[in-house]
Amino acid sequence: MALVAQQIVNGIVVGSTYALFALGFTLIFGVLHVLNLAHGAVFMWGAFTGLFAVTALGLPLAAAFAIAMLAAGLLSVLVDAVAFRPLRRRGSPEFAAIISSLGVAQILMSAAQIASDTQVQRFPFGTFPIVFYQVFGLRVSLQQIVIVGSVAVLVAALLAFLFATSFGRQIRAVAISERTASLLGVNPGAVHALTFFLCGALAGAAGVIIGIAFNSVHFLMGEPYLLRGFVVIVLGGLGSVAGAVIGGLLFGMIQTLSVAFLSSALSDAILFGLLFVILLLRPSGFFGTLRREIRVVRQ
Amino acid sequence: MLEIQDLVTAYDGIRALRGVTLTVPVGAMVALIGPNGAGKSTLLNSVSGVVKPLSGRIRFDGADIAGLPAHTVARRGLLQVPEGRQILGPLSVEENLRLGRLAAGTRGTADIDEVYALFPILAERRRQEGGSLSGGQQQMLAIGRALMGRPRLLMLDEPSLGLSPLMAAQVFAALETLRRSGLTILLVEQNARRALDATGHAYVLEQGRIVHQGPSGDLARDPSVVRHYLPGDDLPDF
Ligand SMILES: Nc1ncnc2c1ncn2[C@@H]1O[C@H](COP(=O)(O)OP(=O)(O)OP(=O)(O)O)[C@@H](O)[C@H]1O
Ligand SMILES: [Mg+2]
């Protein structure tokens, strides 16, 4: 029993990083109705930026974290400008956007491969203090607490931004109907850029957290996250903020439990089998009702 | 205030507007009537910048606005209440109204209480989802939302469409209040009787062309207009 509880705690930690990654992925879908396949590459560059800020600039972790978020946010805006905006202008089908974002992802990964010389990079020893606590008989590290805490803060900040500010209202309005929003004076181009910035910044935060948690930063690290993020947002309902959080946590727990009690080889098979079953049974995800906040409505 | 000249708009090469000329003077309430598919919505959307006109001029307050993006046109005070109301369903009534403020820009935002005074039902429903309102209430919300942007010219696309006669009467009463307060209005309607009664000047659009225009009272007595647009009305005896 204690073993299960321990794995659930671990699952929540892993799941919170999936949630953070998936939030940006799902938000872009909710607002622009496109899958941004460069989201994983932005995440990876966030991790590299954080690493660079710590190793080359010697900055404290908190500052590196902030810089990584900013840089990944700006990179994400650039991805929008290169991969999506020209297609939106021409009214190209959404399929074209998938291909072009895939292309941008490849370019970003190649650039990282060259910059990192195909090597796995590591944060210097002691970047994050190694401290463990015993809580109700469970072993919890300071790192785990900080990870879950930062994710909680970022999710709360995102929700506050989306639901309690004028900018957030404009984002939701464009998600529902770009045309109607523009008739009310909302500048859709600015909203798209803002959305990409937010989503990129969240991906950058996730990148640094993962880079530190596994003490490994490399040019391919975004790929598995992109796939898992995809499962998470399908599970949570495409475009749903709450669904991404719940889906991420659930995904993390299922993964951790199946690795611990079945086999790590089976874990991916189980998760993608899950995706298959969801798509078959509930294509709108299991938290469909939560999608109301940022519902995708085509007009 | 609004001068449209020789406006041509096409969808995929098919012309929906074929040289429309129309003027809305400051403080006037002008009607644009016409059958289904005549191009009425296309005209409003061309002015609003939702669709790009092929040629022709659109002047608002002396400035050429043809081809400007929709949000820029709205922020200049030229606001459209679109066909079908287009309420942002998941947003609350109050959020829909607050969103409307954006267009006011430097003209100073309207007071939400003014809108609630004009449409008291919206104040009662302020926390409800916009999508949960009845058709008439949604129309009031759509108008109120546009008013929040301090319009200098308000364009309405078939505000009585699908409403019960009672609701339609309420909406028209509100428009009358707005007109008397000095707001310039361009009203698109299929219900020609109401539109001609409510306005001072009217245009009739058919297949992308203006086929009649004049004082609304004269059009209401014009036999060719009556035959097509005011069925059931008998021609007055002379
Ligand atoms: N988005 C579009 N794409 C292609 N054709 C369109 C589009 N919108 C309108 N049309 C066509 O343009 C013409 C004018 O349509 P429009 O909607 O402007 O007419 P309307 O006078 O507003 O009609 P209604 O009274 O039905 O609202 C019609 O023939 C219509 O089929
Ligand atoms: Mg129409």
Can you describe what's shown?
The complex is a heterodimer of chains A (299) and B (238). Chain A is built from 11 helices and 2 strands. Chain A is 74% helix and 3% strand. Chain A has one domain: ABC transporter involved in vitamin B12 uptake, BtuC. The N and C termini of chain A lie far apart (51 Å). Chain A has a two-stranded antiparallel ribbon. The longest helix of chain B is centred in the C-terminal third of the chain and has 16 residues. With 238 residues, chain B is of the alpha/beta class. The mean pLDDT of chain B is 91. In chain B, α3 packs parallel to α6. In chain B, a hairpin with a 2-residue loop joins β9 and β10. In chain B, the strands form 2 sheets. A 6-stranded mixed beta sheet of chain B has the order 6-7-8-3-9-10, with helices on both faces. Chain B has 10 helices and 10 strands. At the A-B interface, α6 and α7 of A face α2 and α3 of B. The structure holds adenosine-5'-triphosphate and magnesium ion. The site of magnesium ion has 4 residues of chain B, from α1.
